[in-house]
């Protein structure tokens, strides 16, 4: 079984083990505040774009809450792609409750159907998405295939430096020494985890999750060779989901990257 198939099983099992009510509050949250799940740096980018009559896709959309939030706030049609069938089903149900023009597709991102080629004006990756792919060239080549000419990819994620830093629940973490680096920056070894997906399920003896570290240069080079041109790259001194203990300490902890498709000949 491939690591992608194993991850599919692990994600679907984590959703089955989910905390009571997880994801059920999405419709209420979005009815109260349409941009509830849109990170400020992403919102700033989207606010500056003309999204009228545009289509957006989110790759690795999970239960689609960010996509639904963007669709409701900006009145834009959206498609969410994810490998986990039950997560996608929750997205479908929440889209129906909210009466939003969003559809969801269960698929391996690297095998998205050809009918989606050249369809989207914007493709979005949110935090923790690209780590699930060993080969970024294949991933960003799929982005290029699905984008329209001059379409934009938005990538918001952890900075690779975060992979080097021990987190508070790890034995190597020392509150008095926040400059201690536990792991290598350059590593081809996958992360193997069998303790569930904490934010969904809490910890339990789970099926295997396999993810990968990617350096900034590896990310950028894969984007460029896929036929996209980088328009913006920002680094922030705050984390976006793992821990706030390193925030505002002068370390790069998260990134925002925009790239535009304008070289179809390189795909």
Automatic annotation (TrEMBL):
Read off the SUPFAM superfamilies from this record: S-adenosyl-L-methionine-dependent methyltransferases (SSF53335)
Q: Which GO terms describe its biological process?
A: methylation
For this chain, one GO molecular function annotation is: methyltransferase activity
Against InterPro entries, the record matches this protein to: Methyltransf_25, SAM-dependent_MTases_sf
Pfam families on file:
Methyltransf_25
**Keyword Heme part of the UniProt annotation:** no
Keyword list (alphabetical) reads: Methyltransferase, Transferase
Q: What is this protein called?
A: SAM-dependent methyltransferase
> Which organism is this entry from?
Vagococcus penaei
């Amino acid at each position: 079984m491939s690591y992608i198939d194993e991850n599919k099983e692990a994600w679907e099992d984590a959703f089955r083990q989910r905390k009571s009510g997880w994801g059920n509050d999405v419709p209420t949250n979005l009815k109260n505040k349409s941009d509830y799940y849109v990170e400020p740096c992403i919102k700033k980018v989207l606010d500056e774009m003309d999204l009228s009559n545009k289509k957006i896709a989110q790759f690795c959309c999970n239960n689609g809450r960010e996509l639904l939030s963007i669709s409701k706030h900006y009145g834009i049609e959206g498609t969410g792609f994810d490998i986990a069938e039950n997560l996608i089903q929750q997205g479908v149900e929440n889209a129906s409750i909210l009466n939003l023009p969003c559809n969801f597709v269960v698929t391996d991102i690297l095998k998205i159907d050809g009918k989606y080629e050249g369809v989207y004006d914007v493709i979005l990756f949110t935090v923790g998405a690209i780590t699930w792919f060993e080969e970024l060239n294949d991933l960003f080549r799929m982005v290029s295939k699905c984008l329209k000419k001059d379409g934009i990819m938005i990538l918001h994620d952890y900075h690779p430096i975060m992979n080097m830093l021990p987190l508070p629940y790890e034995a190597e973490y020392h509150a008095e020494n926040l400059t201690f680096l536990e792991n290598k920056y350059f590593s081809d070894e996958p992360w193997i985890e069998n303790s569930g997906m904490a934010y969904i399920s809490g910890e339990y003896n789970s099926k295997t999750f396999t993810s990968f570290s990617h350096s900034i240069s590896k990310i950028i080079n894969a984007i460029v060779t896929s036929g996209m041109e980088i328009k913006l790259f920002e680094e922030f001194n705050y984390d976006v989901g793992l821990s706030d203990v390193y925030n505002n300490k002068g370390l790069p902890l998260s990134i925002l990257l925009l790239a535009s498709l304008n070289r179809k000949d390189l795909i």
